[in-house]
Amino acid sequence: MAREWAMDHHQTLQSHLASQGADADCAAVIEALAEAARELARQIAIAPLSGIDEGAATVNADGDVQKALDIVADNLMRDALRRAPVAGILSEEVNLPETVNAAAPLSVAIDPLDGSSNLQNNISVGTIFSIRPRGRDVLSSFFEPGTAQRAAGFFVYGPQTCLVLAIDHRVDLYVLHPTLHEFILAKSGLRIPQDTPEFAINASNRRHWSGTVRNYVDECLSGAAGPRGRDFNMRWIASLVAEAYRILMRGGVFLYPADSRPGYREGRLRLVYEAHPMALIMEWAGGSASSGRARILELSARSPHQRAPLIMGDVRLVRDVDQLHEGVEPLFETSDAPLFARRGLFR
Ligand SMILES: O=P(O)(O)OC[C@H]1O[C@](O)(COP(=O)(O)O)[C@@H](O)[C@@H]1O
Ligand SMILES: [Mg+2]
Ligand SMILES: [Mg+2]
């Protein structure tokens, strides 16, 4: 007999949200996303991942090459959100936020397919989302700090399709049951395991990093004999959702810092639909997320696709990186950049 998750009496996403008294509008948005994710998981499973049949390459608002599945994912997610109580949608794949129903209470920022630059390798990819109250107008919801988020989460399309959901100050894990076709609660109240000596960074960028980041990684690499006094393990999956999932399961720290390459002076990851939702998930699972100089949840974007450095995971490991930044002038980010102010371009 194969082993299965001890799925909590087959409690579905819908029944669990209702039993926990989740806000009805938030629940409707999450359920709409889950429906789209079920279909996206199915399409990923049958699509060519190699890029062979993809036709002409297009680029998104940020200049990233779009894969055919990026477009499929974007259409599925935005179609689903248009049927939910949503005022506006900001998608990685679209230049400007879309207005859906200006009177609706919530707005959603979304990375429809995260990790897609490595899709051809059949690694885990995912969908990241951030649910926020509608601001004075549709645009302004996306320029609030991350503390304004009502809920956030990500789906992983991997060996198992799952949903990690941060809502009402807890983080729950649901797994898509392959025959019931429902997201079933697998664990409520995830907590990041502490003191796991493990870091994740794309070390091929070492020559572009600041001295601070280089110092931190060198200290980890020097192991038990070095200043951190422990042997560290290293991981790099190149898929943010898979890295975040690993941290929730095993602990450790993830870094995508700013570096000196053109276009990377504020890091690679996008603040509103990558760093903000991951930061909420980390904090509500007992961890933290920082840019090295500020708490990610306190940063506001100056433009929809604003980037930010992201260091996330175990509170103590994130604090070690923050401490190395103390008193060191920013090398790449300028301190007058609106990323460091409370509001940005549209105000
Ligand atoms: O290829 P790099 O520079 O290591 O970057 C990997 C990072 O880029 C991303 O793929 C960016 O996300 P998208 O695939 O949504 O653009 C993250 O998932 C991942 O952490
Ligand atoms: Mg992404
Ligand atoms: Mg993406």
TrEMBL record:
Alphabetically ordered keywords of this record: Carbohydrate metabolism, Cytoplasm, Hydrolase, Magnesium, Metal-binding
Domain Fructose-1-6-bisphosphatase class 1 C-terminal: residue ranges: 192-325
Pathway: Carbohydrate biosynthesis; Calvin cycle
Span of domain Fructose-1-6-bisphosphatase class I N-terminal: 19-187
Lineage: superkingdom: Bacteria
Pfam families: FBPase, FBPase_C
Assigned EC number: 3.1.3.11
InterPro entries (UniProt xref): FBPase_C_dom (IPR044015), FBPase_class-1 (IPR000146), FBPase_N (IPR033391), FBPtase (IPR028343), Fructose_bisphosphatase_AS (IPR020548)
GO molecular function, one term: fructose 1,6-bisphosphate 1-phosphatase activity
Catalytic EC class: hydrolase
GO biological process, any: gluconeogenesis
Ligand binding (Mg(2+) 1): 92, 111, 113
Cellular component terms (Gene Ontology): cytosol
Reported cofactor(s): Mg(2+)
Principal subcellular localisation of the protein: cytoplasm
Residue sites binding Mg(2+) 2 per the record: 111, 114, 274
Residues that bind substrate: 114-117, 202
Matching PROSITE patterns: FBPASE
Cofactor binding mode and count: Binds 2 magnesium ions per subunit.
Keyword Magnesium: yes
Catalyses which reaction(s): beta-D-fructose 1,6-bisphosphate + H2O = beta-D-fructose 6-phosphate + phosphate
Family membership noted in the UniProt record: Belongs to the FBPase class 1 family.
Assembly and binders: Homotetramer.
NCBIfam families xrefs: PRK09293.1-4
Protein name: Fructose-1,6-bisphosphatase class 1
Lineage of the species this protein comes from: Bacteria, Pseudomonadati, Pseudomonadota, Alphaproteobacteria, Hyphomicrobiales
